[in-house]
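Tutorial handout. Part one gives the primary structure; part two gives the three-dimensional structure as tokens.
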Amino acid sequence: MPGFIIDLDGTVYAGTNSIPHVDTFLQSIRREGWPYLFLTNNSTVYPHEVADRLHRLTGLATSGGDVLTSAMATARFIRERGDGRRVFCIGEAGLKHTLAEAGLELTSSAPDYVVQGIDREFTYAKLSEAVSHIRAGAVFIQTNPDHLLPLEHGPVPGSGSIGAAIRTASETEPIVIGKPSPIITHYGIRHIGLPPEEIWMVGDNIRTDIGAGIAAGCRTALALTGLATPANYEALIDNTGIHPDLCVHHLMELYEKLR
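Part two.
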């Protein structure tokens, strides 16, 4: 029985529109009883927001329990380390709420961790404070390394761009939680409850989605529905050296191949 860890942006939806055939794919794997989880590098969203969006776009009832965000994985990682709970956070409301909900203490005084995600109100003062804490011994954690975020009007700087400034000034490499790090993928594997080799990482980004799947020992399917397209996927494979197990034009093609 296969399981699925499924990317969202560019794989399930694009902006306010559902990707074609996604609803039929989800109906089909539910009918088969094949387990799945939606996984996103986005640290700003709440799981119930993602579930509501999926319901609106696909018409299928979805639970927040079917969603894993990089914020959730970050909170879980810190709690499992068990070596401190004081966090200086550079990020937005979704990340801060998730950390606090997990029992972590948000502080600007002697934190054990500096956690950094996307922050569209990032300032030099925040940069200086983060660097000071890291150089004083706080562990630097980055929710995800995405340098750019694709928006309707064009790409804008992402979490990775902010992290690059902190990394340079602190002279410290962060622990990266989100894709292509296998950390978040391993949490997804534990949620699915199958061996990695029976789980398919499905996504449109060959570096993050497919890279994360390979790093965690999963099977991988590149969906040609977002960053990867029928016109560019061969060049992406050549340029990155990352080879997915399958390339599919839409998710129902994946279902048909596995059935």
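Part three, for discussion. The two ends are 10 Å apart (CA to CA). The mean pLDDT is 94.
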